[in-house]
From TrEMBL, chain A:
Pfam families: Rnf-Nqr. Its main location: membrane. The gene is rnfE. This is Ion-translocating oxidoreductase complex subunit E. Part of a membrane-bound complex that couples electron transfer with translocation of ions across the membrane. Belongs to the NqrDE/RnfAE family. GO terms for biological process: electron transport chain. The chain crosses the membrane at residues 21-49, 69-89, 96-115, 127-147, 182-202.
TrEMBL record, chain B:
Its EC number is 7.-.-.-. This is Ion-translocating oxidoreductase complex subunit G. The keyword Metal-binding does not apply. Keywords: Cell inner membrane, Cell membrane, Electron transport, Flavoprotein, FMN, Membrane, Phosphoprotein, Translocase, Transmembrane, Transmembrane helix, Transport. The gene is rnfG. It comes from Candidatus Dactylopiibacterium carminicum.
Length: 228, 220
């Protein structure tokens, strides 16, 4: 058995193949839920749990699943795990459930879960699979936190609304002046598309710059008379 | 996962493969259904208890717990149909009493004509016809625009919009645009009007039928 580079797996999910910015999978929940920072991060936490669990389970069962019916079996496993998580949180983590509850069933519809199960967990052992799923979720959290925070500040002028549900006593922070009239457009769906597009553009710009720098370094290091 | 790499020694017939695949699917379905059923059974009591607590917490917002002394959630009357509440398929009304004297009727109502679909409400109508309070339980009104009907989303925390009803007489339960006394916010009349009209309908129903509603199913 080959050893797995967990740092590489994490970086892959967090940045290189980021769900929201590179794979562009699961945009529906991303756009719908990123109206505020707390909403976005809450959905991401629930997604991390579900993806780690479903990747690990499918990986453990991967030798029992016939190739021809793998997709229905994967969906069955994901839906069952989401149901179990939903019920368990409702019963024993009720405070958390009140915050994340509405997002958990939504995760079943997020195609990134099925995508990682099919692309990774079906071919790799349980631990790397779980790390891969969690890393994808953390990558999603990065996007949702930035997107949710930006839209919330632009739309309402404050940040962290709803934090009292997670940390009792904590309060939203007024970022912009109190008489800020609000910018509804940022909260509505078009605002989500435009903010996400800016984020993707920023990632591409950053990576293009890095590539360019690497290329220049390489060219600078190679003698000028190398073959064309 | 068994990817089709090497051909098996004796290739299975189509029938054999179908049966084997179907049985595998069946086994997975049964295993995971059992997992879900087990979780459901293990969590049911806890979830029911907290759902009941949540309902009580909501009711406490619209009806002070000191005003009644019966087990409110156990003292319910079920109606097969209640179009006045926007619930043609049946409704449950809870009855608050102190001693044996009627105090208030707590009911759910649905405003069918919100800006984006139904708005579910819960309200308490006192025995004297006044309104104990209203809360929005579920809605899909536009965030930042029509969602001020829900006091959790209302920017005015000291005097939320939904608080107006209790102080006004029933005849004024229309939005100002329609000749009533209920204020609304510019640009989002529809949400306020839907809630206001649903509250007025439900309260009128409760007032007209309250004797029957309080008596129904009670042993004399």
């Amino acid at each position: 058995m080959s050893s797995y580079n967990y740092r590489d797996i994490f970086w892959n999910g967090f940045w290189r193949q980021n769900t929201g910015l590179a794979q562009l999978l699961g945009l529906c929940p991303i756009l719908a839920v990123s109206t505020s920072f707390i909403n976005g991060v809450s959905l991401a936490i629930a997604t991390i749990l579900v993806m780690a669990m479903s990747n690990a389970t499918v990986s453990l069962l991967r030798n029992l699943i016939p190739y021809e019916i793998r997709i229905p079996v994967f969906i069955l496993i994901i839906a069952a795990l989401v149901t179990v998580l939903d019920l368990t949180m409702n019963a024993w983590l009720h405070e958390l459930y009140l915050v994340l509850g509405i997002f958990v069933p939504l995760i079943t519809t997020n195609c990134i879960v099925l995508a990682r199960v099919e692309a990774y967990a079906a071919k790799n052992p349980a631990l790397p699979s779980a790390v891969d799923g969690a890393a994808m979720g953390v990558g999603l959290m990065l996007v949702l936190a930035i997107l949710g925070g930006t839209r919330e500040v632009l739309g309402t002028g404050h940040l962290f609304a709803g934090i009292e549900m997670i940390i009792p006593g904590a309060q939203a922070i007024q970022v912009l002046p109190a008489d800020y009239p609000g910018f509804l457009f940022a909260i509505l769906p078009p605002g989500a598309f435009i903010a996400l597009a800016c984020l993707i553009a920023a990632k591409n710009w950053y990576e293009a710059r890095q590539k360019h720098a690497q290329l220049q370094e390489k060219i600078g290091g190679v003698p000028a008379h190398h073959h064309s | 996962m068994s990817e089709p790499t090497l051909p098996p020694l004796a290739p299975p017939t189509a029938f054999g493969l179908s049966v084997r695949t179907a049985l595998t699917m069946l086994a997975f379905t049964m295993a995971f259904t059992a997992l879900m059923a087990g979780t459901y059974l293990a969590t049911r009591d806890t979830i029911d208890a907290s759902a009941e607590q949540e309902k009580l917490r909501l009711i406490n917002d619209i009806l002070p717990p000191v005003s009644y002394d019966n087990a409110l959630l156990r003292d319910a009357v079920t109606l097969d149909t209640a179009p006045e509440l926007g619930l043609p398929k049946g409704a449950t009304i809870w009855r608050a009493r102190k001693g044996d004297a009627p105090v208030a009727l707590v009911m759910e109502a649905v405003a069918p004509d919100g800006y984006s679909g139904k708005i579910r409400l819960v309200l308490a109508v006192m025995h004297d016809g006044s309104l104990g309070g209203v809360r929005v339980v579920e809605h899909r009104e536009t965030p930042g625009l029509g969602d001020y009907i829900d006091p959790k989303k209302d920017k005015n925390k000291t005097a939320p919009w939904i608080g107006q009803f209790a102080a006004l007489a029933g005849s004024d339960w229309k939005v100002r645009k329609d000749g009533g006394a209920i204020e609304y916010r510019a640009g989002a009349t529809i949400s306020a009007r839907a809630v206001t009209n649903a509250v007025a309908r439900a309260a009128a129903f409760a007032r007209a039928d309250q004797d029957r509603l309080f008596r129904q199913g009670v042993q004399p």
